[in-house]
Amino acid sequence: MYNGINIHFPIVWDDGMKWLLRVRQSHNGRPNQDIQKYVIQSEIGVLRLLKRQGLLVPDAWPAGDGNNESANSDIHYFFYEFIPGSTLVLPKRGEDALWSPGERIRRIIHQYAKFQVQISENPIAATQIGCPTFASGGQIAVGPLANHQCLNSLDPPNLPGPFSNNQERYLAQIDLALGHIAAGHLCQNAPLDGYLYHLLLRELVQQCSLLAEQPSEVYIEHADDKGDQFMGNDKNDFTGVIDWECPAEEILVEAYEALERKDLADCVRNGKIYQRLSHIGNFNDTGPRHRGILDAFKKYKPPGLEPPLRPAKELRVYLINRYEEGDTYLPGLMQREGWDQAKEKAVIDEAEAAWHRKYQEERALFLAEMTKGDAKAKDDSESARERRRAAWQAAKTKQKANAKHFAN
């Protein structure tokens, strides 16, 4: 059984107990041994902790002794409790879908809200942000942050964190992404625009007071929370939530409020910021992504930050002018990409001039049509007045003739 990151081999014991052997796949190479060992130990510990708290997650066991002997080989794995059911399908479009929810989707969302409430009722005794780690005695702590987006250092210690707040966390990840883009490891299809986009992210995060708040409690969060981790039966009841590597909308708001958890409902309302920041390290130039991030940070936007609404060349020039001075990598990246500011500005100026010429031509045509219409309306108005005058004269003449006839 395959998924995007792991392969699962079913195991059936003599007593009928079912387990899965969960093995990490190798996509274009593997992280180093320390990272793989850390991720597996964290996932096993998180599953055991949540299981003890009564949540619907599979139990987990290391391979061999408690130090996970699989970490000493090229193949990394552990044992996993078999969860009955299948992945709950959550279509975005169509009848009873996420964008047009009916009874089934509402039921699933309500169960998800109850699951999140259970997690919130079991905070971790820590105030830092990172991945849960576990000592030999079972005590939980917060360690460095593992992730799926290549936001690690190439030199030891590879994993960043732990962090005192979300602002510190996201700035560290953005700086890692900027370094990887400049080195040619990320955003290879559009390195300059990808780099500028992450500079914009950095400024927004630096100015966001919400992200700078110090947490008084921290909770376990699913690192790949996009819906396909929900297991269910044919009645659409949750049977479990899987895939806990790197743990760290309106109907959901209603569900939280129905469960008397306004604090969680507020988290959803502010969730656009975290949703956008979950894509640090990724960029494509097929759409105006900066509009989405500016909308998410609307309440916290720095004064004077007014990028053009139109993407591509205009935005590129604006961001380069804003960030070029003082940035370590941007001048070298511009040179490597052969970016010519004068040439690009000339192209933009010509495009603006062409747009204004077209506007003036269309305006002149419109005014000519309006003038022509006004003249016709004036002619029509004068003709109407002449017809009314003639009719009045005819009526008056007829009235005089009738009066003379009756007088005789």
Automatic annotation (TrEMBL):
<dbReference type="InterPro" id="IPR011009">
    <property type="entry name" value="Kinase-like_dom_sf"/>
</dbReference>
<protein>
    <recommendedName>
        <fullName>Aminoglycoside phosphotransferase domain-containing protein</fullName>
    </recommendedName>
</protein>
<feature type="compositionally biased region" description="Basic residues">
    <location>
        <begin position="397"/>
        <end position="408"/>
    </location>
</feature>
<feature type="compositionally biased region" description="Basic and acidic residues">
    <location>
        <begin position="372"/>
        <end position="385"/>
    </location>
</feature>
<feature type="region of interest" description="Disordered">
    <location>
        <begin position="372"/>
        <end position="408"/>
    </location>
</feature>
<dbReference type="InterPro" id="IPR051678">
    <property type="entry name" value="AGP_Transferase"/>
</dbReference>
